[in-house]
Design goal:
seven-stranded antiparallel β-sheet, 20% strand, alpha+beta
């Protein structure tokens, strides 16, 4: 399928995608069987089957740019790993050729923070720009289960105070001024307040983060998706970019 798509889209490069497929897809019938079995008992619906791949196209005028999204949980389940999908996903990024060595410092930085985060982060998927690897972004998507306090949002967005560049802090200042509105919160609560979710068992969690890394940059950029329908009766998602 990907080889057919490549002929229809100019300047698409699939070298990294091919490596992700090799490293993140179950590679034998036995691995597929184990992944399916563990998914049914360990993952919540509708994720109780091991997804492997999604794709998207950016349509800009007559230009089409391809993105791919990999789900490392399938390989994680297939190989009997139990920590979380970071084991398979982060190793796949570190081992990319070319430029995996230039991505590794940011992956290591994120990996270390992940263990120190005050709340459990669950890795959902990894997004890749299908362009020249020297210019491609890799986005690591992860969500919080239920917590949504401003203190926690600030902690994750600054990696516990390790990233305090002016642009990041300015974006957080703007977001802070909107935080209660986004959560449909009418009362004045302190920054430690976690608002109860309307659907606390949703597989979406409360907040989704995207940690964006590129070759040669040590600290990931952070984007955030606020699932407004979990806080108020609105059927849409609001995406915010922290800049």
């Amino acid at each position: 399928m990907l080889s057919q798509i490549k002929t229809e889209i100019r300047d698409v490069q699939l070298d990294w995608i091919d490596q992700f497929i090799e490293n993140l897809f179950p590679s034998s019938e036995a691995e597929v069987t184990l992944a399916l079995k563990r998914a049914q008992s360990e993952l919540p619906p509708p994720l109780d089957h091991p997804l492997t791949f999604n794709m998207a196209l950016d349509l800009i005028g007559a230009t089409r740019k391809m993105k791919a999204y990999m789900f490392p949980m399938a390989k994680n389940l297939a190989t009997g790993r139990h920590r979380d999908a970071r084991d398979a996903g982060f190793d796949a990024i570190r081992n990319l050729r070319p430029h995996g060595d230039k991505l590794a410092p940011a992956v290591d930085f994120l990996d270390k923070y992940w263990d120190k985060c005050p709340e459990k982060l669950t890795l959902d998927m990894i997004g890749i720009d299908c362009v020249d690897p020297s210019k491609a972004r890799i986005k690591i998507y992860a969500h919080l289960p239920t917590r949504n306090s401003w203190d926690l949002i600030h902690h994750v967005s600054t990696f516990g105070g390790q990233a305090t560049d002016p642009d990041r802090l300015k974006g957080l200042e703007i977001l802070h001024s909107l935080w209660n509105t986004l959560r449909n919160e009418q009362e004045n609560h302190d920054d430690a307040y976690d608002k109860p979710l309307r659907h606390p068992t949703s597989f979406l969690g409360s907040i989704m983060f995207s940690f964006e890394i590129v070759s040669g940059r040590y600290v990931p950029d952070v984007k955030m998706s606020v699932f407004v329908l979990l806080f108020q009766d609105l059927g849409f998602l609001l995406f915010l970019l922290l800049i």
